[in-house]
Write a structure and sequence with these properties.
13 helices, Rossmann fold, 335 residues, 6-stranded mixed β-sheet, alpha/beta, 7-stranded parallel β-sheet
Length: 335
Amino acid sequence: MKVAFFSTKPYDRESFEALDHEHEIDFFPQRLTEDTVHLAKGYPAVCAFANDVLDAPVIRALAETGTEVLALRCAGCNHVDFDAVTETGMRVVHVPAYSPNAVAEHAVALLMAVNRQIPRATARVRMGNYALHGLAGFDVVGKTVGVIGTGKIGAVFARILKAGLGARVIAHDPYPNPDCEAMGVKYVSLDTLFEQADVISLHCPLTEDSHHLIDADAIDRMKPGVVIVNTARGAVIDTPAVIDGLKSGRIGGLGMDVYEHEGPLYFEDRSDEVLTDDLFARLLGFHNVVITGHQAFLTHEALGQIANQTLQNLTCIETDTACEREITPAEEQAD
């Protein structure tokens, strides 16, 4: 199958070209948007990533120029307009699981970086300042860690915190994970989680219910000094509300790999540009905020699994074989 591969980075190309397959892939560094959709003309399949624009105008433009398959090389599909998918008859496949360990371990790394103020301490040492004042963190052992969303990633995170670091882990999820229950994770209401947790880690999908789940009201119910970690989706957090929480001290630290307005920012070198996003600039000004640029998935193992599953998905579509990784509009609306 001939595939237009958007938002190509060197690590993408390396992981896909390392595998044997019969698909004809043309790699485009450009992000898929209304301005670049013309590059997909004549391609039966398009491979897109989490930051590509897949709204109704783009979906319709793809369909009009011959694209029949949208292969997402990511798990989340909240950026896809499924009404337009239904309208055009396009088929959508994704990679729902690609090393949950990668994301869970990155969430732990963010937690520890915030708690032990690793970036701040490192910056001091580079400047010849070896003073320790202001760098005190807390022992994770015995603390209450709240996990929101206990799918594959959340479950791995819970296991690391409970078995590895000795934390008391509580969780909230509409569908409790038996594996988490077996390891002694207690499921509680959101109110209880907010009230009890010293650390809150977000691992839930972005839905209407989870959009701005962490808002001003939720923050007001949290323990003073709570540490929040987000490796889920940026819009799960209401950014202005979190900034207010950081300013007041209600939030003691924030580790984030995703940002609700990351589309125009992430995955590119913008070091020579003026930062025009005032909210992001404000977040960068807090010494107790650690931000990474949507890299939680970025391990060699995960990249290999993403490439392998994406190619398998394309082969299933091309050979008209049942594809377990296909998302139908009806399933998406049910979720």
